[in-house]
Amino acid sequence: MIRVLLVDDQPLIRSGFRALLDVEDDIEVVAEAADGGQGLALAREHLPDIALIDIQMPVVDGIEATRRIAADPALAGVHVVILTNYGLDEHVFNALRAGAAGFLVKDIEPEDFLHAIRVAARGDALLAPSITRKLIDRFVSQPLDTGTRAGLKELTNREREAVVLVAQGLSNSQIADRMVISPLTAKTHVNRAMTKLHARDRAQLVVLAYESGLVVPHSS
């Protein structure tokens, strides 16, 4: 069962998403919140698999809520999916840098919405390579922190190769085929790279791959 927390300051938006989720046998809405502060408290209480968080809210916005969730070791299993009205913008990029697993535009088709929830619950990034390139090309401006620079130096050649393939949108099984290794070994390479680069999930790993220069926006 996929446990979902809804965080949005508009009751109609929350009720609309809840109506879609409640009819699914494998998804359960465990709580709702009207701002990021309430969302954080409810995330700690319920430990959902997915926190669906609006990017713009009063009191505590979605970016700050994402940052706080990502910084809390007790919430390591919570995958944040950002909701936005506007699609690609700097707020979305900042949410991804803060630790979001991906983002959804609020006018998304119902089937795509449900598919996205299941993808995020598996731990996969909701970032198509074309979307990622646009985000990175437009908004990368912040220098890498010391920990990330040190982590890059620690990556093995195979781990670097795996990171590049993740940034190109490949799954672990596809990475395994490309690198001619087992899916378990591919997963190990990806997980070790995430640990060394202090990436919370695959979405952050994708962002770091572009920011570090391992992948150039127009080269893939």
TrEMBL record:
<dbReference type="InterPro" id="IPR011006">
    <property type="entry name" value="CheY-like_superfamily"/>
</dbReference>
<dbReference type="GO" id="GO:0003677">
    <property type="term" value="F:DNA binding"/>
</dbReference>
<feature type="domain" description="HTH luxR-type">
    <location>
        <begin position="148"/>
        <end position="213"/>
    </location>
</feature>
<feature type="modified residue" description="4-aspartylphosphate">
    <location>
        <position position="54"/>
    </location>
</feature>
<protein>
    <submittedName>
        <fullName>Response regulator transcription factor</fullName>
    </submittedName>
</protein>
<keyword id="KW-0597">Phosphoprotein</keyword>
<dbReference type="InterPro" id="IPR039420">
    <property type="entry name" value="WalR-like"/>
</dbReference>
<keyword id="KW-0804">Transcription</keyword>
<keyword id="KW-0238">DNA-binding</keyword>
<dbReference type="InterPro" id="IPR016032">
    <property type="entry name" value="Sig_transdc_resp-reg_C-effctor"/>
</dbReference>
<dbReference type="Pfam" id="PF00196">
    <property type="entry name" value="GerE"/>
</dbReference>
<dbReference type="InterPro" id="IPR001789">
    <property type="entry name" value="Sig_transdc_resp-reg_receiver"/>
</dbReference>
<keyword id="KW-0805">Transcription regulation</keyword>
<feature type="domain" description="Response regulatory">
    <location>
        <begin position="3"/>
        <end position="121"/>
    </location>
</feature>
<dbReference type="GO" id="GO:0000160">
    <property type="term" value="P:phosphorelay signal transduction system"/>
</dbReference>
<dbReference type="InterPro" id="IPR000792">
    <property type="entry name" value="Tscrpt_reg_LuxR_C"/>
</dbReference>
<dbReference type="GO" id="GO:0006355">
    <property type="term" value="P:regulation of DNA-templated transcription"/>
</dbReference>
<dbReference type="InterPro" id="IPR058245">
    <property type="entry name" value="NreC/VraR/RcsB-like_REC"/>
</dbReference>
<dbReference type="Pfam" id="PF00072">
    <property type="entry name" value="Response_reg"/>
</dbReference>
